[in-house]
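MOLECULE: protein
FOLLOWS: sequence and fold
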Amino acid sequence: MLIYQRTLKKEVSLWGTGLHTGKDCMITFKPAPEGYGYRFVRTDLPDSPEIPADIDHVVDIRRGTTIGIGDAKIHTTEHVLSALYGLEIDNCRIELTGPEPPVCDGSSKPFVDAILSVGLQNQSEPKNYLVINETIEYHEPERNISIVALPLDSFRITVMVDYKNPALGSQHSGLFNLEKEFVNDFASSRTFCFLSEVSELANQGLIKGGDIENAVVIVDQKMAQHELEALAKKIGEDGSQLCIGENGILNNRELRFPNEPARHKLLDMLGDLALLGMPIKAQVLAARPGHAANVEFVKKLRKYAERNKLAQKFQHERKAGIIFDSQAIARIIPHRYPFLLIDKIVEFELDERIVGVKNVTINEPFFQGHFPGNPIMPGVLILEAMAQSGGIMLLNGNEGFHDKLVFFMGIDKARFRKPVVPGDTLTIESIMKNRRRNVCMFSSKAYVRGELVCEAELMATVIDKKDAEKKAKV
């Protein structure tokens, strides 16, 4: 895989019509400096608003991935982004004179060809790869969708689709080397839809720029000629030019690959992965992916990346099975002996879930009085350990956390199931339930050897240290 960041040698432009908006647009790819990423610019709007192509700016996922800021939007970004991602370009300014890139032939190849015509330029800064070191999963059981990223010191992606249609059936496709396979084997795969969807899409105000030349229409229902003609009027086509194909595709169009739909799904997924803002090293396995699922999966990857960034900041020595050790925890929260009650963090999903561990020993100072001859860890200290674990989950999601404190506002539904004694290891799992501005609610459960010993719901607020100091003086 490439080591250094990459951009274009010079700018290049294409003209065309947007698939869904039907608006004519010129798209211009321009070189950009290191660390710039991908940014779309609407040059047709006042002040030429700039929209970063990242997961935070996704505003719509109907039949494509739309990004935007305020009233400025870019529709159907995936084919452009897959071209950039597939060519391993890291930095590019993408200027448009309209709201949607040209659909061209429904694939990424026109963009790829245009970019390659001006050449690529390696830059001086190294690439910022997201290295996947653990399994990351996204599932939608109701739609039988699964996307998984597995550890791998390179990039591979495999996609399976199953539409239960005779013309399409089950298909799969895999890309194992971007540099060798993307341009020739995937970039030219065209977008597709089913004949039964065309009318609905037209009624939704979509595919205004669609025609039989820029999409593969798969026949999934019988339709008489007069019905075809009525449908053709909705999309601005000549009905006499349409026919139900004998090969299961409208107008008997030939596929560029036997599994072209699966390859296009893979192409779309590359475009959506580009929204992460960095290339990844992983093996990605996707069953029945779509833009909505892709976006949710990228959100998981982004949280993983943010967690790793935090871990690198506070956990100076990497240790197997540990996110934060006791020294890292002391860098994060202000508690000290004898009130630092978490020894390590072993699992952490940013703003969602955290698992901390407390080793309970006879040396704990509270055992001298609780109780002599019958040492039992005080329930209030178990709750405090829960609070500290949850506090790490809350504070780490905030910029400038050194200037923040977590104050607890309430404890509800606390239950103590079994006593905790010296020699026990408390495993505390806290899950975020709700977060509104600076007020958070999370539930915690503490286990010893897999048995529940304590559970509670806690509410907390994150405040500035300066505000806390002012209140203390008053």
